[in-house]
């Protein structure tokens, strides 16, 4: 089932999400719905707070991004073959490498994109959809998408990584999004 995406301005996007356990009701269906929602919205990642669930769950499919790159771009993201995975109760163990800039967007903040600096490598502990514990290192575009989604379960948004000056310039657009004064090709949940 395709779920509505929570729009900027909803307080759930600013909450630190809670860990879940294997017996979380309807987890496998929720994960399936998140994949369907993400692809229907042309996303490459989706976190549970974006579908109105304050839990530490997100999904990422960076393979579609990596597969769309030309050889030169792919060479710039050393060792990144892309990842398609479910991340439950993720915790960052370390961030390494120099920060690099990339133009990011977010399904909860449609039609706004900004350059964001993030570290090039992240080491993450998490559980997959079968609650198997995993510790893994991600690099390049995969690391960036994971860090973007990880921010969501920490109550942060990509606009928190830009200057206060740029945020002031976006103020009216952000207010329009929070009031539902925007048209997008996917379902959204706006504040009433």
Descriptive notes:
The protein has a single domain (5-187), classed as Peptide deformylase (Peptide Deformylase, Alpha-Beta Complex). The chain is 28% helix and 29% strand. It has helices at 27-40, 63-68, 71-76, 140-153, 164-169, 171-178; strands spanning 5-6, 45-47, 57-61, 84-96, 100-106, 109-118, 121-127, 133-139, 188-189. Strand 5 (100-106) and strand 6 (109-118) form a beta hairpin.
What labels describe this entry?
9 strands; globular; 192 residues; five-stranded antiparallel sheet; Peptide Deformylase
**Looking at the chains present, what oligomeric state does this protein adopt?**
single chain
| Major sheet attributes | 5 strands, antiparallel
* Total count of domains: 1
Tell me the number of helical segments per DSSP (H or I, 4 or more residues long).
Answer: 6
Helix content: 25-40%
Strand content: 25-35%
Give the overall shape. Answer: globular
- Please report the total strand number as a whole number: 9
Low-confidence stretches are none
Supply the CATH architecture: Alpha-Beta Complex
| Average residue-wise pLDDT | 94
What is the distance, rounded to the nearest whole angstrom, between the alpha carbons of the first and last residues? 23 Å
N-to-C order of helices and strands: EHEEHHEEEEEHHHE
Return Rg in Å: 16 Å
- The CATH homologous superfamily name equals Peptide deformylase
Instruction: Write the CATH fold name.
Output: Peptide Deformylase
| Class per helix and strand makeup | alpha+beta
């Amino acid at each position: 089932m395709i779920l509505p995406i929570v729009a900027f301005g909803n307080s759930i996007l600013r909450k630190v999400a809670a860990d879940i356990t294997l017996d979380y009701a309807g987890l496998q269906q929720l994960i399936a719905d998140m994949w369907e929602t993400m692809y229907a919205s042309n996303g490459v990642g989706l976190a549970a707070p974006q579908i109105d669930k304050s839990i530490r769950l997100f999904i990422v499919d960076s393979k579609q991004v990596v597969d769309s790159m030309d050889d030169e771009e792919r060479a710039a993201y050393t060792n990144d073959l892309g990842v398609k995975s479910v991340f439950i109760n993720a915790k960052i163990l370390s961030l390494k490498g120099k920060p690099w800039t990339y133009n990011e967007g977010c399904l909860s903040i449609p039609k706004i994109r900004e350059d964001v600096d993030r570290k090039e490598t992240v080491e993450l502990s998490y559980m997959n959809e079968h609650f198997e514990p995993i510790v893994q290192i991600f690099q390049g575009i995969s690391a960036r998408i994971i860090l973007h989604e990880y921010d969501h379960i920490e109550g942060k948004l990509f606009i928190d990584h830009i200057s206060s000056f740029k945020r002031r310039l976006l103020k009216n657009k952000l207010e329009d999004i929070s009031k539902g004064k925007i048209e997008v090709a996917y379902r959204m949940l706006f504040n009433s």
